[in-house]
């Protein structure tokens, strides 16, 4: 099979297309014929050397969408449409950047859809993180206000769409004036790093909930935009900065504002939620934002464009 191999952390040139042996699944594992996979910040961090417990060389990719090829000792059958994500994919073992990938059954979610693979490939990990951030991370309720810091990211678009369908009022930010009109939000804000005063101009007590997708550089300002007893969920690192040096909680956190985090796993996305979301996308009722599609041979271009923030929304690569 053809696969994309990251030889070691470094520039995009360290991503090489190679011929590898077809992986053999053991009982309880699923071999998937990959049709499409998303390019995520997680894989960018891996390439830049910011991933813990990763081995090299490795086939990256924390998600993949395709059809079951073999699934010994499981309830899945060949030809069944599936999505796989997380659980060590692309770090502890070879991931989705390949024609075939083998993953444990628990990381696989079956679905049924006539959507094109370019659309399906954009959904799994983005939906899982957006859904989990809003429910587990924020416990978002209808009628609440939600600030999304990093609104033109794939996760930002998805979170805004889900939050509005839940009955929340959404404020979303972007650093680029040209993308303000793209934001799927009730209030679009140009982000210069300091937006708390503008948020409180709209909602003097602060927002009920905030989803931090930029990272630690904007986290204090996001906390300052949130009301007492409100919640901020840290779920993204678009800035590639995710640690707070010399963290002093009492000095860092505003009085009464809660800070949570969310990462999630395949088991965090109920199959019914995935199926319902795909059905709503197919009917036009739901959109998770723009998708930019690359052929397999242009993986370096895809990574470069993500790293340099040349694209908004999700980047998807079609497998050969």
UniProtKB/TrEMBL annotation:
A Pfam family it matches: ADH_N
Highest taxon listed in the record's lineage: Bacteria
Residue ranges constituting the Enoyl reductase (ER) domain according to the UniProt record: 10-317
SMART domains: PKS_ER
Keyword flag NADP: yes
InterPro entries: ADH-like_N, ER, GroES-like_sf, NAD(P)-bd_dom_sf
Keyword Oxidoreductase found: yes
Keywords for this protein: NADP, Oxidoreductase
Protein name: NADPH:quinone reductase
Organism, scientific name: Paractinoplanes deccanensis
